[in-house]
Design the sequence.
C-alpha cells in the first residue's frame, strides 16, 4: 500500500454513471470483445447491475470465471479496476482506511519543537491543513485528509472517475466484516468519525465473488444481484479454450475438454478450472501434440491436477480410458 494519503471528498449524492448499456445483447458483445464469453445469465446480471446501480454477488466453484467477470467489466467499460482480496482476519484498516500515525506523530513533534507555534497549529489563521490555533483540540488538524491512508473500499468510493470494485472471495471473511460492508453496498458511502460521511462521486460497479465455502448473510445478499457460475458445458468450454488458444485444432480442443469434464466428475480435492484447461491447451501446442493419447496425458496432467492424491486417482481412472472410443460419450454425460 502507498504511504501517502489519497485525497477524498464528499458530495450530496452519487451521480448516475454515463454510458449506460442499452441492452443485454450489447453487454454480452462488449464482454466478448475483451475476451470473456458470457452466457445469458451473466450478461443479464451485468446489464442490470449497471442500469440499477446494484452490486453483483457471484458464487460458484473455484476457477469458473467469477473474478475474470469483474476484470472483463473493467476492460469493457474502460473503468479502473480496484480489487480487495479478502482473507481470514481482514479488518477495516486494510479494507477501508487507516490514519498515518507515523506522519501524525512527526507533525506533533515538529509543532511541539517550534516555540513560535501555539498549541494546535501555526501562528497564522490561514494554515492550509485547516488547523485552528484557538481550537480546543490542540491537534485537530492531524485528523484531516492529509493524514488519511485510503484502502480499496474508500478508493472506489472517493474515485473521481468511474471504477469497478472487485471484492474477491468474500466468503473468506467473517460476518462482522460483512456487516461493515452494508453501508458501502447500500448507500455507496463510508462514515469516518473524524471527517464525516464520504459519499461516492461516481457510481462504481461492485462485484463480490464467493467460492461458497460458507453461507453469506441474508443482509448482504439482499443488497446484491445474484449470479451462480458453474463449470460450462463441453461446447461452451471449447469456445473459451479456442478463443484463448486459436491455433489449437478443433478435434484436439474437443478431446482436451472432454477429458477435463471426465476429470471433474471424479471425487477430487480440486477439479480443474477453466484457466487450467486453457493452460493445458497452450502446453499441448508448445509440445507439438496433435492428439491426446495416454502417453501425452500422463506427461502433462500435472498442468490440470495439482494434488498428489488426485494425480493417482486421475491416472488410474482417466488414463486407462483415453484409448476407448466411448470417451466422448462418457465425458459429455
Sequence:
Amino acid at each position: 500500500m502507498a504511504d501517502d494519503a489519497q485525497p477524498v471528498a464528499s458530495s450530496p449524492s452519487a451521480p448516475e454513471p454515463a454510458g449506460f448499456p442499452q441492452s443485454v445483447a450489447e453487454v454480452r458483445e462488449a464482454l466478448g470483445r475483451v475476451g470473456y464469453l458470457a452466457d445469458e445469465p451473466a450478461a443479464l446480471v451485468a446489464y442490470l447491475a449497471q442500469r440499477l446501480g446494484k452490486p453483483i454477488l457471484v458464487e460458484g466453484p473455484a476457477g469458473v470465471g467469477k473474478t475474470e467477470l469483474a476484470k472483463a467489466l473493467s476492460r469493457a467499460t474502460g473503468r479502473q479496476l480496484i480489487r480487495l482480496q479478502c482473507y481470514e482476519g481482514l479488518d477495516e484498516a486494510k479494507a477501508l482506511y487507516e490514519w498515518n500515525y507515523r506522519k501524525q506523530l512527526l507533525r506533533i513533534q515538529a509543532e511541539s519543537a517550534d516555540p513560535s507555534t501555539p498549541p494546535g497549529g501555526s501562528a497564522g489563521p490561514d494554515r492550509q491543513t485547516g488547523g485552528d490555533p484557538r481550537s480546543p483540540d490542540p491537534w485537530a488538524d492531524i485528523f484531516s485528509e492529509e493524514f488519511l491512508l485510503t484502502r480499496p473500499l474508500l478508493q472506489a468510493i472517493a474515485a473521481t472517475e468511474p471504477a469497478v470494485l472487485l471484492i474477491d472471495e468474500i466468503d473468506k471473511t467473517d460476518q462482522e466484516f460483512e456487516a461493515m460492508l452494508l453501508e458501502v453496498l447500500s448507500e455507496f458511502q463510508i462514515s469516518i468519525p473524524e471527517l464525516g460521511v464520504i459519499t461516492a462521486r461516481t457510481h462504481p460497479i461492485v462485484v463480490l465473488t464467493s467460492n461458497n465455502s460458507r453461507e453469506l448473510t441474508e443482509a448482504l445478499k439482499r443488497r446484491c444481484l445474484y449470479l451462480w457460475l458453474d463449470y460450462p458445458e463441453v461446447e461452451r468450454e471449447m469456445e473459451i479454450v479456442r478463443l484463448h488458444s486459436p491455433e489449437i485444432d478443433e478435434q484436439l480442443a474437443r478431446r482436451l475438454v472432454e477429458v477435463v469434464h471426465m476429470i471433474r466428475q471424479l471425487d477430487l480435492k480440486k477439479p480443474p478450472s477453466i484457466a487450467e484447461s486453457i493452460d493445458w491447451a497452450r502446453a499441448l501446442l508448445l509440445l507439438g501434440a496433435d492428439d491426446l493419447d495416454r502417453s501425452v496425458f500422463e506427461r502433462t496432467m500435472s498442468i490440470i491436477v495439482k494434488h498428489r492424491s488426485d494425480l493417482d486417482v486421475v491416472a488410474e481412472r482417466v488414463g486407462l480410458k483415453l484409448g476407448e472410443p466411448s470417451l466422448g460419450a462418457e465425458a459429455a454425460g
Summary: The longest strand covers residues 80-85.
